[in-house]
Amino acid sequence: METITKRKLIIMMNYFDQRRAGILLHLSSLPGQEACGTLGQEAYNFIDFLANIGCSVWQMLPIGPTVLHSSPYQLSSIHAGNPIFIDLKWLQQRGWLPLKPPISAISAIHKHDFIAQSRLEFIKHANSQDHNLYEQFINKQAYWLDDYVLFQALHLEFDTPWWEWSQPIRNREPQALVAANTKYVNLIATLKYEQFIFALQWLNLKKYANQKGILLFGDMPIFVAQDSAEVWAQPKIFDLDAKGLPKVVAGVPPDYFSATGQRWGNPLYNWERMQEDNFTFWMQRMRTQLDLFDIIRIDHFRGLESYWAIPATEVNAVKGNWLPAPGDALFTELQNVFGTLPLVAEDLGIITPAVNALRQRYALPGMKVLQFAFYGDATNPYLPFNHTVDSVVYTGTHDNDTSLGWYQQLDTHTKNYVDEFLGVPQESMPWPLIRTALGSVARLAIIPMQDILALDSQHRMNTPGTVGGNWSWRFQWDWIPDGLAYRIKRMVSYYGRHL
User: Checking DSSP bridges between strand 57-59 and strand 444-448, what pairing results, if any?
Assistant: First the structure.
């Protein structure tokens, strides 16, 4: 399988050499008959749609296996792909899955069982080239794959978080690990095969996108879930107590999104230990993301300069404090290993001069969100005339309401200000905001699919600080009215962002 080289990195940096437009749509939001979107035909159809409307970037949320409430920002692995995205029809077409019930009848819960059947068919029917690809994959990825598949196998066995497992396996005593690998040998083999199939399908999709001139734009959460393979396998690089529980957890103080802040609950890093081994954790993580994506957003970038540490006993994020992070040392090491990186810094929230300096020192584009622009005075950095070329502009993000929903809920004074600022537009919302984003000097403009479809608050992807009802939104092709593709294509062209 193809790997990242410095030459490829130089090519990938070309995403910022011209004005571009893209759409934000998570993989799970693709239409289809399965429980969520997959790497199947609808993903290819969406790439064709992007090419047809002149957009050259597809941005999505993290694609790893989720832990809590299907949140893509709570992952059980920083390297693995979420098997829920595997397309079973692809396996059937290759003769690696018996023709059983219609794929549309398969729930996400049963997908693992079908992949287990597929592994047996793969063993019997795959050609030598495919078997060699499998062996190359598991050997190359062993540095994370071996821990991940054992972690997942134990999870399926005990159905509890890892810190509640028996002490020998919880503490990774060598004899206990050997015994577990022996006991769950077949399940482990299926889990390795599962990741192999995900990688094959992903790289095929990425190749198709790149051939069409479409760049894949990924999202890397700054933190990992407590109940993850990494925290279990490498507890010393996290700030944990003797029982494996976090002393402090991640989040942000009160802000635009929540009066009590956001208590994410992720364990925080032991940065001193990370720095001692030249940030190996981050080097491996970045290599994985570079294999998957052409552009990578670093979620909560400001946490690499300083982070909000909340005592684990607190129920919300109010009582925390800022602690320093070695962002300079980390990015110096990343550049030493990879050279120039195709990164975007999510620099929303409480941003200090030190955070801005860190981003600018390593030439990372920041984010401008238009929904944040119409508050305060003319110094508001999200106002269009304050945008900079080294930015990615959004109408809104996955954490915002849809732009139509946002506008509909504004008070009269703010709504009048928005209308006046935008020149009392004749177009209905969200089109004036889309036009403003496309007209920004920011080199890259990203529009959520919900805004392209002019959808209201019922179609919001996530409401920060809430549990339940998030991350499940999907669109349907018949929601796209006649003439919409042509309208977008003309606007993208007008503002010099055409593919």
Answer: unpaired
Q: How far is CA 42 from CA 152, 293, 470, 476, 498, in A?
A: 28, 19, 22, 10, 23
- Distance of alpha carbon 320 from alpha carbon 310, whole angstroms: 4
pLDDT digits (tens, 9 = 90+) for 81-90: 999 999 999 9
Tokens coding 495: 């503002």
Per annotation, catalytic residue among 230, 399, 401, 456: 399
Task: Give the integer Cα–Cα distance in Å for 342 and 34.
Answer: 33
Residue 499 lies in a domain: no
**Structural contact between residues 438 and 474, judged by C-beta atoms closer than 8 angstroms:** no
Asked if residue 200 lies in contact with residue 139, where contact means CB atoms within 8 angstroms, the answer is no
Alpha-carbon dihedral 204, 209, 210, 216, rounded to 10 degrees: -100
299 catalytic? Reply is yes
346 annotated active-site:
yes
> pTM above the 0.85 mark?
yes
Number of structural domains (the chain) is 1
- Structure-token pair, residue 384: 């269009």
To the query of whether residue 130 is one of the catalytic residues in this protein, the response is no
Pairing of strands 262-267, 295-298: unpaired
* Given 87, 230, 294, 346, the catalytic residue: 346
Report the pLDDT averaged over residues 19-42.
Answer: 95
Strand partners, 262: 252
Structural domain for 154, as ranges: 6-369+420-494
223, 193, 217: which is closest to 68 by C-alpha? 223
Element housing 321 (H / E): strand 321-324
Sole residue written with tokens 């402090």: 248
DSSP 3-state assignment of 110?
helix
CATH code at position 325: 3.20.20.80
The per-residue pLDDT for 371 is: 98
400 is a domain residue: no
- The string of pLDDT tens digits covering residues 402-442 is 999 999 999 999 999 999 999 999 999 999 999 999 999 99
Burial category of 249 from C-beta neighbours within 10 Å (exposed 0-12, middle 13-18, buried 19 and up): buried
Decide if 408 is inside a domain. no
| 452, 445 contact by CB (below 8 A) | no
b/e sequence 457-495, b meaning 16+ C-beta within 10 Å: eebbbbbbbeeeebbebbbeeeeeeeeeeeebbebbeeb
The verdict on residue 44 lying in a domain is yes
Q: HEC states along 5-69?
A: CHHHHHHHHHHHCCCEEEEECCHHHCCCCCCCCCCCHHHHHHHHHHHHCCCCEEECCCCCCECCC
